[in-house]
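1st attempt posting a full record on here, be nice pls
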Amino acid sequence: MQDYESVKLLSEYLLMHYGKDEERMPWVIGGIGSLDFVSRTVEYFSPKRVGLSLDLGCAVGRTSFLLTKTSKKVIGIDFSQSFIDAANTLKEEGSIAYKMHEEGERWVDAVAELPPEVDPEKVRFAQGDAMDLPAGFKGFDRVHASNLLCRLPDPLAFLDSLPGMLADGGELVLATPFSWLEQYTPKEKWPQGDSWEWLQQQLEPHFELVRDSDEPFIIREHGRKFQLGVSKVSLWKKRAS
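the predicted structure (as C-alpha cells):
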C-alpha cells in the first residue's frame, strides 16, 4: 500500500491543494493545471447555508476549509496522520512551509496558505478510517468524499454506510477516477462492468442524482512529471426515509 505518511506524498498533496497555478503546472502545454480540481468538487454543493458538513478523505484540508463558507461546522477526516497534522497547522497558523520537488535531489521552498474567506475556527480535523467511523456520525447536512472510493478496501460497504450519515434532503458529493488497484481494494471487491453504472445502482435507492460531470485533476511529482486523472464528480440528494 502507498505510504500516506511519506514526506514526498505530503508535499504533493500540499501542492495540489494550495499551490499556485504556475507551481502545479509550470508548462504552457499543460494549461489544464490551472483548473483547480480541489475547489471545484466543493462547488458542486448547492449555495444554501447548512449546519454540519463531513469531509471524508480530506487530505491536507483545503476542501474542509472551503466548506466553512456555507457550513456552521465542518469535520475533516483522513487516514493519514501527517495530512491531518498539516491541516491542523494551517488551521492554527494560517500557513505551512514545505518543500516542492523540482528534480533529482533538488527541492525548493514553498508555502501553503489558507484560501480566502474561510473560517478555520469552524473546522475540526481528526485522523480516522472512512470504513470505521464513530457510531455518532449521523445527521450530516453534507458529506464530501473526493478521490476516496477507489482507495478503500470495501467500497460497497462504504456506499452502504452513506444513507445513515446524511439527514433527509442532505447532499452528497462523490468524486472518483475509478482507478481500481489491488494494493487498495481486493479484486473481488471491484465493480463488475461499468463503474459509473455500478455507482448509480448502489446509490439510487437512497439518493437522487442531481448532476454529474467529468473533472480533470493533476498531481505534480516533480517539475517535469505529472499525474493526470479524470474523476467522475456527482452530486446526490438523500431521499426521505
